[in-house]
Specification:
It contains eleven helices and eight strands. It has a single domain, classed as Alpha-Beta Barrel (TIM Barrel), CATH 3.20.20.60. It has helices spanning 9-18, 30-38, 50-53, 65-78, 96-108, 124-132, 148-151, 161-177, 189-198, 219-222, 244-257, and strands at 22-26, 43-46, 83-87, 114-118, 137-142, 181-185, 203-206, 214-217. It is an alpha/beta fold and 267 residues long. The structure holds 3-methyl-2-oxobutanoic acid (KIV).
């Protein structure tokens, strides 16, 4: 029996304890997965941003579980070392049982080693059930793209004290429920720092400042190929490098050294 040579959740937790930053990027196919893995990316996230950057949709809402399973399986074939996380897309977590059934597809057919779900307090039962069945879970707080119509736009979250307090509390509740990693999207750097210090699981920031335990960006954003206006947390790593492998290696190096994100990429 060949034992896996890949990174595990336990090792990512050790990274936090030892102060090593976690470099994460989204991936949607085998060729990019292999390039990212070779360049030293620790975690590959098959994000439901797939809807926007691959399928050309205007939000993440239309992507289906079937689409996610297909792309997760593609990414799985291209990687060796990186941990593989897949997003549970819109309306696949409306009950704990639905979340479990959807997560099972991502794990069994897609090869995901962890699933990510958006939301706090109202997801605790789903998290407990998944963890009880042996499926590691990544939480996601702050800007929740699946709730975009309720939020009324892609805006920074947790800017008022009441909302900041709620996010800190929900981070603790998610950890208690069994979440192993936590994505923090578009929140003030000071709040992300407070959450990161309060919980013992690693936080992965996107637009959440330099003090998270790791960073994630949408692959096409960091390669500078996404059309239109970019949020301030995006940096084009292809500019100034010779090829995509070099751009990804530069991203990994800047995340690991703490050079990225800087104040200019934070709120
Ligand atoms: O779908 C996605 O790409 C994500 C990241 C932005 C964290 O959830």
């Amino acid at each position: 029996m060949k034992l896996s040579e890949g990174l595990t959740v336990t090792e990512l937790k050790r990274f936090k304890q030892e102060g090593e930053k976690i470099a994460c990027l989204t991936a949607y196919d085998a060729t990019f997965a292999s390039t990212l893995d070779t360049a030293g990316v620790d975690v590959l996230l098959v994000g439901d941003s797939l809807a926007m950057v691959v399928q050309g949709q205007s939000t993440t809402l239309p992507v289906t579980l079937e689409d996610m399973v297909y792309h997760t399986a593609c990414v799985n074939r291209g990687r060796k070392r990186a941990l593989l996380i897949a997003d549970l897309p819109f309306m696949t977590c409306w009950s704990p049982e639905t979340a479990l059934q959807s997560a099972a597809g991502l794990v069994q057919q897609g090869g995901a080693e962890m699933v990510k779900l958006e939301g706090g307090r109202h997801r605790l039962e789903a998290v407990r059930l998944l963890v009880q069945e042996g499926i590691p879970v990544c939480g996601h707080l702050g800007l929740l793209p699946q709730s975009i119509h309720r939020l009324g736009g892609y805006k920074v979250q947790g800017t008022d004290p009441h909302d900041a307090e709620r996010l800190l509390e929900e981070a603790c509740l998610l950890e208690e429920a069994g979440v192993d990693l936590l994505v923090l999207e578009c929140i003030p750097a000071t709040l992300a720092r407070a959450i990161t210090m309060e919980i013992s699981i690693p936080t992965i920031g996107i637009g959440a400042g330099p003090d998270c335990d790791g960073q994630v960006l949408v692959l096409y954003d960091m390669l500078g190929v996404t059309a239109g206006k970019h949020p301030r947390f995006v940096k084009n790593f292809l500019a100034g490098t010779e090829d995509i492998g070099g751009a990804v290696a530069a991203y990994v190096a800047e995340v690991k050294s703490g050079q990225f994100p800087s104040r200019q990429h934070s709120y």
